[in-house]
Amino acid sequence: MRTIYTATFIQEDNTFYARIPDLPGCITTGEDLPDAIEQITDAANLWLVTAEDHGDPIPAPTPQSKLDHPDDAILTMIQVDTIAYRSAIDTRAVRKNVSLPAWMANLADQRGINCSQVLQEGLLQKLA
After folding, report:
1. How far apart are CA 83 and CA 77, in angstroms?
2. Which of 9, 15, 96, 112 lies at a C-alpha separation of 20 to 30 Å from 124?
3. pTM, whole model, 2 decimals?
4. Can you tell me the mean pLDDT for 80-100?
């Protein structure tokens, strides 16, 4: 899933407190604004991946003009991409048994085609 949410940031002393109002409990901190943006983007991706895995409802992004936020908050849009996030954090290999016609498997072997790689490429294209 790829979408854009609004993040809010409040600075107190040398800390930036960040949250995504549309994602309950999605909060974090950063040492400066760029760090806080990086941290909240990571937190939002993790929040969404967890919701996807558990079949929980995923809130639609609220337009910035309709968000309730403190007057001194900094608002910025962040892009989340759960497929890219999953590929970055879950790099373990999982064995899958697939069936191919014998002629196709033989021809792939003769031509040095890696069937696992072709399957991964095809699945990434289908999932994107």
Report:
1. 19
2. 112
3. 0.75
4. 90
